[in-house]
Amino acid sequence: MKKQLTYVLITPYSLLKSRTGGIIGRILALSRNVRFVGARMYAPSDAMIDRYIATLKTEEMFPGIREALRTYADVNMRRDNPFGISNRCLVLLFEGPDAVKSLREDVVGALSVDMRGDSIRGTYGDVVLSRDKVAFFEPAVLMPTTDEANAQQLKILSEFAMADGGILTELIRYPQGAQVETTLVIIKPDNFARRSSRPGNIIDVFSRTGLYIVAAKMLRLTRGQAEEFYGPLRKIFVRKLAGQAGARAAKALAGEFGFAITEEMKEKFADALKEANAEFEFGKIVNYMTGQDESGAELPAEERGKCVALLYQGENAIEKIRHRLGGTNPKEAAEGTIRSIYGYDLMRNGAHASDSAASAERERKIVGLWREEGSCEFWETIERYLGGKVSG
Fold first, then answer.
1. What is the DSSP letter of 211?
2. What value does the mean pLDDT take over residues 31-56?
3. In this prediction, what percent of the chain has a pLDDT beyond 90?
4. Residue 214 has what pLDDT?
5. Residue ranges of the alpha helices (H) in the chain?
6. Which of 157, 240, 277, 327 could form a disulfide with 333 if both were Cys (CB 3.0 to 4.6 A apart)?
């Protein structure tokens, strides 16, 4: 069966209320036969909203719900809206056989007055009637209901990907004098190694900072990118891991010789091994982040090294994110932090976050979240599908 590409759009209100992680966790854990293949932030222009509204006539839904959805898009999702909130949307791409039907039936749910907690819309959305008319409407997420609507709406996402989407660092309004920072977070590959809510759960913990997500992308680091990204660790490993290398060497040699290994010998072992040991440990991280380690090799090729990169923005963003992330070693990280809950070891510790403004700038440039020119992977994914180059 030919693969189908579709999308789920997390609405501005869901983002504002920090429901993002819960929604993503539900989709990734409960969706069947579909792969998560892309992510991008949008701030739809009036032209994009008008185009979307025009596609609603091809949707399968009750006339009253269709009109409520049309009104919702026309009022709530424009940049100039009566609620004074940013119209940031997070769009996620999924690929698989009959993806529209699969996502809608398995996890998103239909828009109706009888929505219940067994679907995303039942948990995070609302349709409230008063005298048989829709009095309150919040769909939580948008997605197509028919193949025709799907094709039309994917085309809109493609056409407006660069103009209305991407790095939305200039969108949020802050009080005068606010110390606003933008920092990078990477949800690491082991969180995507199997179908689970872990990536969404991690995003949910970060949401407790009160910061804004202003960019998102599916990320697969090349070896060159990973080596550049983690390059500063080489010198750190030489300095910090030399003692461990010396101790390991002493322990291994103690069983081979009949004499005691002295502290002086350990120091000499450490000095002799520090460079090679640092390079070995550095290589392990690069292999892990690019899907070339043992765990990555167990996955289908297209799933190896999958990460999600997010930009968080707000006052003191770097410190707030690092506080919620926790210490590098999960065994020593404070209780309730991401690394204490979701980390396994120093390498597989849930997520990465920039440790300074300078690091954030350097890292954002490496992963392509500093400035975009021409095109992006999200746009390319949609264009490949619309061009008929995606098949099962």
1. -
2. 97
3. 80
4. 98
5. 12-16, 20-30, 46-55, 63-76, 99-103, 120-124, 147-159, 161-164, 198-207, 223-229, 233-240, 242-254, 263-289, 294-297, 317-325, 338-342, 357-367, 377-386
6. 327
Q: Are 352 and 186 in contact, with CB atoms under 8 Å apart?
A: yes
Q: How many Å apart are CA 325 and CA 317, to the nearest integer?
A: 12
Q: Over 80: is that where the pLDDT of 80 sits?
A: yes
Task: Band the pLDDT of 392: cuts 50, 70, 90.
Answer: very low
Alpha-carbon torsion angle 105, 197, 40, 138, nearest 10:
50
Check if 352 is active-site.
yes
Say whether pLDDT at 135 is over 80: no
Domains of the chain: 1-166+372-392 (3.30.70.141), 226-289 (no CATH)
CB contact at 8 A, 86 and 43: yes
Q: How many CA atoms lie within 13 A of 225 on its CB side?
A: 15
**CB atoms inside a 10 Å sphere around CB 384:** 12
* b/e burial code for range 301-338 (CB count within 10 A of at least 16 → b): eebbbbbbbbbbbbeebbebbbebbbeeebeebeeebb
Residue 186 tokens, joined: 């990477």
Q: Which residue type is seen at 14?
A: S
The contacts of residue 77 (CB under 8 Å, 6+ apart) are 11, 12, 44, 49, 87, 89
* Cα distance between the two ends of the chain: 6
Distance from C-alpha of 37 to C-alpha of 18, rounded to nearest angstrom: 22
Q: Across residues 81-92, what is the average pLDDT?
A: 95
Catalytic residue among 40, 320, 348, 352: 352
- At residue 352, the 3 state secondary structure works out as strand
Confidence band for 12, pLDDT divided at 50, 70 and 90: very high
CB atoms within 10 A of CB 84: 7
Q: How far is Cα 361 from Cα 7, in angstroms, rounded to an integer?
A: 30
Distances, alpha carbon 86 to alpha carbons 11, 150, 152, 168, in Å: 11, 25, 25, 10
Integer Rg of the chain from CA? 24
Report pLDDT for 90: 98
- Please give the pLDDT value at position 1: 65
**What region does 169 belong to: left with phi over 0, alpha with psi -120 to 50, or beta?**
alpha
